[in-house]
Design brief:
Layout lengths: L1 E10 L3 H9 L11 E7 L9 E8 L2 E13 L3 E6 L5 E14 L2 E12 L3 H30 L4
């Protein structure tokens, strides 16, 4: 079983700056409390093939995660796939950004969660929790991006 969750939010910052902020996955802990630490490999600007390695805490358990950037079209599209072997993974995910004018950006984030082994029984719970938190997750992205990006 697999399923998708998504959130859409409007950020009061220009699309180029929002894209740059979100494309640097090392910013994820600023809006995702489950991300305990994260690194980018190689330590160069994010591009197709870049890997983000993280330690996350889900349901009280720490796991290691590894995501590969699969598509990048600055400043409007970023895609990733989880390559780590966990019971529930994000087989695909991404950001879609849209310029709204007057220095504003619409951001859509989504992830497709997939269960493996016993994770096939758990993915429904993970999806339910992610969908329930989706609007709050979007609000955290908005708040973090607006706090991190200096407004002109």
């Amino acid at each position: 079983m697999s399923g998708q969750f998504e959130a859409t939010v409007e950020v009061d910052r220009p699309v180029e700056a929002v894209f740059e902020y979100l494309a640097d996955g090392r910013n994820d802990p600023q809006f995702s409390p489950r991300v305990l630490k994260i690194e980018r490999v190689p330590e160069t600007p994010t591009a197709v093939g870049t890997i983000f390695r993280s330690t996350v805490k889900d349901a009280g358990m720490k796991t290691s995660r590894e995501f590969r950037v699969t598509d990048l079209e600055a400043p409007v599209k970023l895609r990733w796939a989880e390559v780590s072997k966990n019971t529930v993974t994000a087989s695909e995910g991404g950001y879609d950004l849209e310029r709204l004018g007057e220095g504003r950006t619409r951001v859509r984030i989504y992830n497709v969660l997939e269960g493996h082994g016993i994770g096939k029984l758990l993915v429904g719970l993970a999806l339910g929790a992610a969908r329930k938190d989706a609007d709050n997750f979007g609000a955290r992205i908005k708040a973090a991006a607006e706090a991190a990006i200096v407004s002109n």
